[in-house]
Specification:
alpha+beta; 35% helix; globular; Fructose-1,6-Bisphosphatase, Chain A, domain 1; D-Maltodextrin-Binding Protein, domain 2; 5-stranded mixed sheet
Length: 263
């Protein structure tokens, strides 16, 4: 079995290759080239090509590698080494030229994330972590924020755009959180949102439903930066289809109480 450092190096190489491709490709601006995955959710040939590039690098490193991703194999596997891949987290942003999208790659062993990277497609900022070795932005070690009072906190979120039946509950949560904090931001890339929690730029984050490829690398980043990540009931999570609450310990606890009270 490869070391977590080996896994991190492989993931970084794969993410960098994908971003190199994304930086040169012409965005398919005509919606005729977009395919609908679900309400307000699109995929393009660019996603698929980026995914192929990532898969090629991962399989070159290990020909028997198991890969999980929305287009690769959406069935989550937890045994042995599994690569969990999102070639463009924030596809709608990418298609519109809005610079909030990232490549997210994580290596999980028996369900536990051992290494992960989130590479911002526009700035090339590389967020990376290994289990037990901290979270980093390039060569700078990351730590979650020290803000404890919600009134001073900046919170990230994601709208339940795939699940309109949850909007009423989400509106109640949003109303309480908005009234109690210094602001809420929704950029449209959960991988970047979690990386920004790890960096201390967001004090907390919540979203009602995400996929394993949205969050796998971000979970490790937040935890290795000293933060807390759970589901909406406060249970520790691994990569899964799940709701997510993340933050520094104080803001996570407050968000959890607030969200549970407005479900």
């Amino acid at each position: 079995m490869k070391s977590s450092l080996d896994l991190l190096r492989i993931a970084t190489r794969a993410a960098e290759r994908a971003v190199e491709y994304l930086s040169t490709v012409e965005r398919p601006r005509d919606p005729a080239a977009w395919q609908t995955k679900g309400p307000h959710d699109f995929v393009s040939e660019v996603d698929r090509r980026a995914e192929e590039i990532i898969a090629g690098v991962l399989r070159e490193a290990d020909s028997g590698a198991m890969l999980v991703g929305e287009e690769l194999s959406p069935q989550l596997v937890v045994g042995g080494l599994v690569w969990i891949v999102d070639p463009i987290d924030g596809t709608t942003n990418f298609l519109h030229g809005y610079p909030a999208y990232a490549v997210s790659i994580a290596a999980a062993v028996d369900g536990e994330v051992e290494a992960g990277v989130v590479l911002h497609g526009e700035t090339r900022q590389l967020f990376h972590a290994r289990r037990g070795a901290g979270a980093w932005l390039g060569e700078k070690r990351l730590a979650v924020s020290t803000i404890r009072e919600p009134a001073h906190a900046l919170i990230g979120t994601g709208f339940p755009f795939k699940h309109p039946q949850w909007l009423e509950a989400y509106y109640r949560q949003f109303t309480r959180i908005h009234a109690a904090t210094s602001g809420i931001r929704r950029a449209g890339s959960a991988a970047l949102d979690l990386a920004h929690v790890a960096a201390g730029w967001f004090d907390g984050f919540w979203e009602l439903q995400l996929a394993p490829w949205d969050i796998a690398a971000g979970l490790l980043l937040v935890r290795e930066a000293g933060g807390v990540v759970t589901d909406l009931e406060g249970r520790a999570i691994r990569p899964a289809h799940t709701g997510v609450i993340a933050g520094n310990p104080a803001i996570h606890a407050w968000l959890l109480e607030t969200v549970r009270g407005e479900k």
